[in-house]
Records
---
Amino acid sequence: MIVAHRKHIQEMKSQLAEHERILVLGCGTCVTVCLAGGEREVGMIGSALRIAFRKDGEEHEVCELTIERQCENRFIEDALKHIQETDAVLSLACGAGVQTVAERFPTKPVYAGVDTKFIGVLQEQGVWAEKCIACGKCIVDSYGAVCPLTRCSKGQLSGPCGGARNGKCEVSPDIDCGWQLIYDRLKALGELDRLAQPAPLTDWSKSHAGGCRTLVRTDQRIATDRK
Amino acid sequence: MAAFEQGADGVIVAGCLEGGCHFQEGNLRAKQRVATARQVLEEAGIEADRLEMFNLSSAEGNTFAQIVETMTRRLKDLGPSPLRRSDPVEAIRDSRAS
């Protein structure tokens, strides 16, 4: 899932200060699962904004709504009436959701209420960890299903850097050495010989380094595009 | 949060003793939510100490009274909520007079 973390209430408040009617718009997908921008957080943040505004003697109307997904126009339609009736939207979706809402309403100010962090997993209660940098060409099968580009702080494909101590990365003792994880995993699988194979060069043109990416699937296009 | 919006000076969340929740983990989840609400309140400009969760069983009347006294003392020290629009006692008197 995409992992996000809400911004400070005062940061949101200052973003929205000039708008009288505000919609706090939650997203029912990734940010709900990572407890950053789902229905529960919408209620909490909406309430906190009303308190913060009122404490400073400012009267703003803060409304709340959560839709299934903000990264898809079909679901944004469910918020059409609410968005039209407000002066600004505080989106609690990831960066994709915020931009999709903004593109759908070209003249409506849309603000991000969360910081989008990474593609990751819930590692344990209250801890989320990055697992994928969306490089565009998955190579984990060669590394025991551990991604060296993500899990190694230096993104090394040909082995460890030599800076790790006790299985921890030299960048931070809180980070596992990605190459220790790869070695342990391949050893458990009996596939350590994979490490004898030279790693191919990474095609970074398939990553964000190649520019903003678009995926086109002709099998999924509707008839108007098949003329 | 709604109570604070209405101008409450403080809120006590009373849960069952940890491990004794009828809904198994309900009071532990409530504890996490209260912790989040305290942080959000602080960011919004309301003292986090106006909100507190206590754990006690329904048979502990004396403990409940002590908790209420503790919170009352704390709230007197903190003073009224900055969101309170009128004195609630005066408001009741006014409503009775009219």
---
Amino acid sequence: MIIVKDLHKKYGAHEVLRGIDYRVEEQEVVCLIGPSGSGKSTFLRCLNGLETITSGEVSVNGHLVNDRKTDINTVRREVGMVFQHFNLFPHLRVIDNVMLAPTKVAGIGKEQARAKALELLDKVGLKDKTHAYPANLSGGQQQRVAIARALAMDPVVMLFDEPTSALDPEIVGEVLSVMQDLAREGMTMVVVTHEMGFAREVADRAVFMDGGVIVEQGDPAQVFGDPQHERTRNFLSKVL
Amino acid sequence: MLRSFGWQDLEALARGALWTIALCATSGVIGTLLGMVLGLAATSPSRIARWLATAYVYFIRGIPLLIIVFFAYFGIPLIFPELSLPAFATAVIALTVFTAAYMAEIFRGSINAVPKGQWEAAEALGLGYFKKLRYVVLPQAMRIVVPPAIGFLIALIKDSSLVTVIGFVELTHAGTIISNLTANPILTYSVVAVFYLVICYGVARLGRWYEQRSSADRKTITTEETPAALELEGV
């Protein structure tokens, strides 16, 4: 589904990603963990072209993301993304946030898009907020709308960039449970997270990044239970 | 022959005020549209477009309006000798060129003030450049544009008195004529000032109304009315 080969990303002289090779298979849930500044968010943003890469190769669902000849918007239609700060469109009601891309990008009819949007809002438990504006929702509700908005394009992969980091602790659970449902339905997911409990329980694979490289990766039970590298042990001892 | 200030003078000043309104409305509308295009160019991914828009803004903003008016008055006949433009058209051209530069800066600033996360969210959904602007960025930028744009338009109304130098009879010019006829400059210019005040106050109120309306848009619609709205849609 996702194939990354020798990915490098530099900002000026500063090299954030220093050679990453990775594959994500269909229906796999991968959690990226690691200290801040380790490059995990940058890595995630390279997968849908929000960051241009310096060298290497990123391919998603058969599209070569870093190829100039690839229309990046066709890639992005197939890749949903959820941000740390939700980034809902404040001037649009919840329903219109969810319907925007299907109607304006995919060219789906209004009624069909509306039906789909209502179904998705029901799925994330927000059917009663359809006509609210984002400003009237709690952080957890906004993030669930953001998930519905991304799902409205029927993506084959979902990227989550620290989806619960901006939320109050008591609200984190409602977002994680929506994500867990998605994982159970077989969605391919790449999740940058600090929620170690989620990574341990839901992920098929955990990837520990530090200093712009993948230090260790594998079965979460193994990465969390018996980390092989000193840096991983160090990190986990601080966060667990 | 001197005469005292009378109704006919008030009427002449009112006519001048209408010309001032016509002048500012025309150049304000065209200038704002041009300014929007320039503001979009200044924030576009194209380096040439950005450079051209920025050059225009710096050039025009660096020249006094009076000089722009002179250029329009003396320059246009030099370039197009057959064209004999009425004074109104010359004045509109000068004020439009001026307005476009300032509006471009206001649009550029407002577009840049839309948070980066909004652009990224639109991009991540696969919206291309123009769709992203149209459905996500510009609706939000418009709310930011209004207060400084209104401020600029109020300044423009007063600055438009400069076109009096090319013989166009707007409010200030009408005032000068009547002041000479009546030898009562204090009264005449007081009336002129009151006309400007009323026009500017009107524009300021219009701006307030727009701001309140667009913020009311978001606030009055709460989740309370959701069940009813949903019923209407047969959910």
